């Protein structure tokens, strides 16, 4: 099996370390010294525990798994493996990659979950550093495979598992059979390979459901401290209709770039093996997402602070590049910016951050 380093020990990182170890891979789990709570817990108990039940609901893949290494030494994590999986908030991707840069090795695969155009950003950073000659492959996943959360240090619950994971490989010439096999062997679900990281960013399933529903429901979410089932309680016929209109804007951007993207409903049904007739029905009735009452309780939640600047802003920038309007996307960015006194149009992930000029965008999408 493979030697894999997981960079980031939050909900997704801890779950990746647990599940990939359960599949027989040798795992090194890393997090920064200032965020070492999970690393300390894993080392103290000798591994990671997954519960069989939480809040009375049955959970997936319960048990206990030993982890080969859990460390705050980035050099050790980078030297351990050929496959590096980054699972962290998008705003932390550049910060962590700065730590990783001095230790990059030729032939390494840096797999970012979710990518949110991160492969393009990190490739630009590599090319602007003294590591520019290193042959590194960047993989952007549209999400993580699991619906999961940490319940206490070193202990988690896995509520659901996607049917497959869509990923892109960049640079495209690195999409060899060997790299594809490494990716496929390392994940707990089948892999769908997309054309490029622009498609992967636009296919992120969180695009509509998270930022728009959160901004539309912010008064109730804050006043009732997020004491809801997010998907069931924050999706109404009207908000689902607004989300569908914003999804049409995303699809229009994809079409203008030459991509045939899945609708949000098609993506949800495909990823979770369901057959709902509408996004409203999915959010109201999904057994995976209905197991635990949990919702954002402020505008500082990642559904706003990550999904607006790293999903909506790139879509807005791409729309501008191809000359079409996306008024609901733009409005959602304005509202989120007002909530948090932050100009996400400036601080979000731009084409410049990705190192993409108009000519390079044409090459990526041709």
From TrEMBL:
Keywords: Oxidoreductase. It holds the Pfam family NAD_Gly3P_dh_N. Residues 3-111 form the Glycerol-3-phosphate dehydrogenase NAD-dependent N-terminal domain. It comes from the Bacteria. InterPro entries: 6-PGluconate_DH-like_C_sf, 6PGD_dom2, G3P_DH_NAD-dep_N, NAD(P)-bd_dom_sf, Opine/Lysopine_DH, Opine_DH. Residues 195-339 form the Opine dehydrogenase domain. This is Nopaline dehydrogenase. The lineage of its organism: Bacteria, Bacillati, Bacillota, Bacilli, Bacillales.
């Amino acid at each position: 099996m493979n030697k894999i380093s997981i960079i980031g020990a939050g909900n997704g990182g801890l779950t990746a370390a647990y599940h990939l170890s359960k599949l027989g891979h040798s795992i090194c789990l890393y997090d920064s010294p200032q965020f070492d709570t999970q690393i300390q817990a894993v080392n103290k108990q000798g591994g990671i525990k997954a519960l069989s039940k939480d809040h009375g609901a049955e959970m997936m893949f319960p048990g206990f798994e030993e982890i080969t290494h859990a460390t705050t030494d980035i050099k050790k994590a980078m030297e351990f493996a050929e496959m590096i999986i980054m699972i962290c908030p998008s705003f932390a991707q550049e910060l962590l990659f700065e730590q990783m840069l001095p230790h990059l090795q030729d032939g390494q695969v840096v797999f970012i979950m979710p990518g949110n155009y991160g492969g393009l950003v990190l490739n630009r950073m590599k090319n602007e550093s003294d590591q520019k000659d290193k042959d590194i492959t960047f993989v952007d996943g549209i999400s993580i495979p699991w619906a999961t959360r940490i319940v206490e240090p070193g202990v988690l619950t896995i509520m659901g598992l996607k049917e497959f994971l869509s990923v892109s490989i960049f640079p495209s010439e690195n999409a060899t059979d060997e790299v594809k096999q490494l990716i496929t062997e390392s994940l707990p679900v089948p892999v769908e390979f997309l054309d490029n990281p622009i498609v992967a960013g636009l296919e992120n399933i969180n695009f509509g459901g998270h930022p728009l529903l959160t901004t539309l429901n912010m008064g109730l979410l804050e006043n009732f401290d997020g004491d809801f089932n997010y998907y069931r309680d924050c999706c109404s016929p009207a908000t689902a209709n607004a989300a569908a209109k914003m999804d049409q804007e995303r699809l229009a951007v994809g079409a203008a770039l030459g991509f045939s993207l899945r609708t949000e409903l098609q993506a949800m049904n495909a990823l979770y093996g369901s057959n709902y007739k509408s996004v409203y029905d999915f959010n109201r009735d999904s057994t995976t997402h209905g197991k635990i009452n949990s919702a954002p309780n402020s505008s500082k939640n990642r559904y706003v602070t990550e999904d607006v600047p790293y999903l909506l802003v790139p879509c807005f920038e791409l729309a501008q590049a191809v000359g079409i309007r996306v008024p609901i996307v733009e409005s959602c960015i304005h509202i989120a910016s007002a909530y948090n006194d932050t100009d996400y149009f400036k601080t979000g992930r731009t084409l410049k951050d990705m190192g993409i000029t108009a000519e390079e965008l044409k090459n990526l999408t041709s």
